[in-house]
Amino acid sequence: MNDKKRIVSFRDLDVYRESYEAMLIVHRDVLPKLPESEKYDLRDQTSRSTKAIPRLIAEGYGKRHQRAGFQKYLDDAMGECNETIVSLEQCRDIHKVDTDLINHLVARYDKIGRQLYRLAESWSNFKRTKNLT
Question: Of 3, 47, 110, 116, which one's alpha carbon is 20 to 30 angstroms from that of 23?
């Protein structure tokens, strides 16, 4: 018996759901705590990078039939994930935003990055074994 859930939409990907939920927490509980002086820098950049991760997963999933299409989007999402981690650490270290919350989010984005890496690796192996183009 196969315990794996069938994936019929990008919404079925655990990493999509995890990144979307983490993005909501950042927007609700972190960004409003940044000073107005960070409106066009740290706040804006963190907002864009957190929103980009689930968007890239969704867009890449739509191009999964292309050679290396999905892979490129997963790689870009990993880059945005790393950028988000740095931004969150800056929120914590420069502006003293809730240390426990930031540490939790950094750990969560680290997990998301590892999930993206494993998904990219699995997709690459799947494409090779199935000889899909």
Answer: 3
